[in-house]
């Protein structure tokens, strides 16, 4: 049953739900041709075949984020709004990765609430002065969207916290979800006001806007769209507890490129796509891609970096040098450990303090000589959990200072106030060690900043009293659950929950010899300095451009309702097979060859009942009774099963086990294709049985000529993994045997060499020619990889110059997917409708008894 959230877009995002005012339309329209302004209001149409004229302008990037990179305040005298750029934000810093000619437009909300009467003036001012487009979400919507769904639903879930009870997170609230969808719709509207869809690239940032891609893709089928997730993506066991899980996954899949900080996050996302949507991924020349209705959605794995130049400029400030001297004087003769964290429940501040307490208890030599300076950034959200975390941190710090402190020594210093950049920089520069002990964090750039500050600068070196050419050292203790951990190979990685191991890691970091500290620092600095924020954004945009390069070489059209909308993108020559079109060709021809696969074609793939329906039997019998038709079912199934299921179709030809066994009609004998010995089955069967025993839900099917290992009922990830392993295993052990190992839809099959569905079609067609009845109509329908052999064989056979005239060919795959076939049908129900149409067009005259037989004795 479809989710209630999967209703029409405009129902979800309409003012009927949350009294949302019409999005202001005061911004200048996009100029697509000099002197002509395009009208982008409403949903009047989309670019299904992209006949819009391309913009003649410089390259543009549209960055969409929850908040604009601006400071805002009212002027005390004029009472007008004043704005300035927030240089600390990533959104501004990523521009360094773009070419100087690139124009960057920002779309997002302001951190302040602007009165409706002032919104038009403010919007014009922000666009003119800062290239910013504000969204102006109504206050009630902003609360439900950001503080409601984002912070109370998504953020805890993405950090592995489930609402197991009312005191441990909020239950799912559908009104908050509707607010999230409405807010995303407003953001999408604002993008549409300024976008030139043929030329502009859109880059959406973070979990606040995960369904926005669906709105943009619906309006502009070929929009160039990237998304980067700055938080963790949870494992499928956690993520699939979200009631709107499919809608969010499908929203992300409407992008061309999806970015993650680590492979773990990407792996979790891919696992969710596999388990919930049945999508498989593959690596294409080093790039991970998901095939989604003909579009390839690429996955990017690259952690974000820091702005090196900005940090180095702060290092050279006189205020930083003065603060360095002050800190050195304050902690003279002592070693510093620095921690900088937001006050929230996932940063592990209390666990860090407990580990430091353990360190002082076990190593008395540090008492009086070692200080932990913990800078606490203001909490980004409020709540009972945050207050409890803060209270526990203060209680723990107070206990440590009471037990181990003295009048001239305070072991733990909690700085719980706004700390200027220069002051943080000074603490980084002085500290012997930096610890990041978060229990879950998307990235965390604190270690990167610490390493750069420890590298120093001429002014900072002078303040610290060290020579410019002296070796540098730094030590990092980093939680293994933090996104930056994989990229810092020289850090001491810890499990933050294991207080003893964290304490010992701190001890190792402080007591390690300087030469090793120097080597670790050099390794980290080399990575951090070369993988800065410009490198990150440049790499992402290059991959986005690569992902979008084929947009205009394929036909695109939208399908699906509500948040289930997606775009089908296929070759221009690949189209749906019209019943009227094929019936017209069918009526004007007299020598017809019809080849049909069985599972997934005339019988639904997912059906437990494998016998054909009465409607299928009637249609097949009508087609077979027409003397102008040669009809074959070509399947990988065993001949006894096909004989049983298709018993009512007396004149139907059957090719079983991919053509190993063939008969022309029910009354004719089965003919076997010449095969080498099947001794290899004795090698394969024990191997497959061992994989069956090791893989719950898998099964082994023994055919006369082949062995098949099925894993459709196994765990999707484990079954796929085992199938790949089995494929490699069998290819190795059968290297010198006359057998072929292939992988199909949730199967691994071993069959004799020289046997394929393609050879069946080739032999039937050549026999028709040799009997003086060259085909003038060939139809072949199938749904899996083995049927591609038939499509290829038909195309090559009918192009043979020995044929008097080229027949009309209808090679058709079931499902919209890349194929050798020129046509597609959506499912087996479409196939049955087509067969019924052909049967109606047939003239069911009785067959004469004298019919030629197909001999397969020498065909293989």
Radius of gyration: 33 Å
CATH class of the largest domain: Alpha Beta
With strands numbered from the N-terminus, the spatial order across the biggest sheet is: 7-6-3-8-9-10-13-12-11
Write down how many β-strands occur, each being a DSSP E stretch of 2 or more residues: 34
What is the overall number of helices? 28
Label the structural class: alpha/beta
* Assembly state: single chain
> What overall geometry do the principal axes of the alpha carbons give?
elongated
Write out the CATH superfamily name of the largest domain. Answer: Glycogen Phosphorylase B
| Share of helix, binned | 25-40%
Q: Number of domains in the coordinates? A: 4
**What is the architecture of the largest domain at the second tier of CATH?**
3-Layer(aba) Sandwich
GO cellular component, one term: cytosol
Enzyme class: transferase
Protein name: alpha,alpha-trehalose-phosphate synthase (UDP-forming)
GO biological process, one term: trehalose biosynthetic process
In short:
This protein is α/β, with parallel strands linked by helices and 860 residues long.
Describe the protein's architecture and organization.
It is an enzyme of class 2 (transferase). It comes from Nyssa sinensis. One of its GO terms (cellular component) is cytosol. This protein is α/β, with parallel strands linked by helices and 860 residues long. A hairpin with a 4-residue loop joins β28 and β29. Strands 7-6-3-8-9-10-13-12-11 form a nine-stranded mixed sheet, sandwiched between helices. It has a nine-stranded mixed sheet with strand order 22-34-33-32-23-24-25-26-27, with helices on both faces. Strands 16-15-14-17-18-19 form a six-stranded parallel sheet, with helices on both faces. α15 (421-430) packs across α16 (446-455). The chain is built from 28 helices and 34 strands. Mean pLDDT is 86; it is low at 1-56 and 847-860. The two termini are 48 Å apart. It has four domains: 60-136 and 184-301, Glycogen Phosphorylase B (Rossmann fold); 308-531, Glycogen Phosphorylase B (Rossmann fold); 575-675 and 755-842, Rossmann fold (3-Layer(aba) Sandwich), CATH 3.40.50.1000; 679-752, Alpha-Beta Plaits (2-Layer Sandwich), CATH 3.30.70. The protein is elongated, with a radius of gyration of 33 Å.
